[in-house]
Structures are given as structure tokens and as C-alpha cells.
Amino acid sequence: MNGFDLYILGRRLMRLGQEATPSAGIHRLPSSVQLVLVDVGDHPGTSVSEVVARTGLPQSLVSAAVARLRDGGALLTETDPADRRRTLVRPSARIPALTARVATTPLEDVLGPALGLEDADEIAHVVALLRELAARFERT
Fold it and tell me: What is the pLDDT of residues 16-56, one digit of tens each?
């Protein structure tokens, strides 16, 4: 596996996640807004300019996405006390409560058909591998 393979795998997993969370609404957002939300989730307390640098999106697009997500209650913003010209962004404390209420389709129902698997044990093994991978990322 190389970097491109990993990127393609990530996109496939993202699409399966969207399929498994039909009511979440994040996939109805423009991809730029999704990208900003994910980036801020990975880097809480970040500045808008840092989001711009990491995502490669124009500053105006990032600022608009932050405003939209702030107005929707997903992000919180505050003035950087060290540099009053900068805005710091972090996920809202409401995010875990909101995601806990999201109706999801069982992963087995999505992964089985996507992988061409019918054996429940094989599908359960794939789910276990994904959980292990997710847990490893949470430890970093």
C-alpha cells in the first residue's frame, strides 16, 4: 500500500460512513465545510490561518465555513488572547451529544455488500479490524 492507495481507501471508508449515517447531515454540507469541520476536530483550538495552511482552501472559504459551522452550533470561536487579530476555533461541546443521537445503519449492513461478503463472521472480523484501527488513531 502506498499513499495513493491509503487515500482511495479513506475515500471509500468515508462513503461507507455516509451511507451508514443517512440522517447525520454532514454529507449534505459542501465538501469544503466538511473538510474544515474535520480539520478543526483534529486540531481543536486552531486558528483560521492554520486551517487554511492544512487544508489548502482559500482563507475566504475557510472563514465562511467556520461562520456557517459556528452559526449551526458545531464550532465555537474566540479571539486569540496572545494575538487579538486571530480567531481560534474549536468543536462545540454539543458535538458528542449530537453524534450520539444520530441514527445509524449497522456497519455490518453496509460493509457486507460493499465488500461482497455474506458470512457474518467475516463481516464481524472486518468491523473488529476497523475498530482496532480507530482505537489506534485515538491513542495518538
Answer: 887 777 655 555 678 888 889 888 988 999 999 999 999 99
Q: How far apart are CA 59 and CA 3, in angstroms?
A: 27
Q: How far apart are the first and last CA of the chain?
A: 21
Helices (H), 1-140: 3-20, 31-42, 48-55, 59-71, 94-100, 107-115, 120-138
DSSP string of 42-59, one letter each residue: HSTTEEHHHHHHHH---H
Between CA 27 and CA 18 the distance in angstroms is 6
Q: What is the pTM of this model?
A: 0.62
- CATH label, 25-101, candidates 3.40.50.12780, 3.40.50.720, 1.10.10.10, 1.20.1250.20: 1.10.10.10
Alpha-carbon distance of 116 to 128, in angstroms, equals 17
> 3-class SS at 32?
helix
Instruction: Please list, in sequence order, all residues whose beta carbon lies within 8 angstroms of the beta carbon of residue 80, skipping any fewer than 6 positions away.
Output: 47, 86, 87, 88
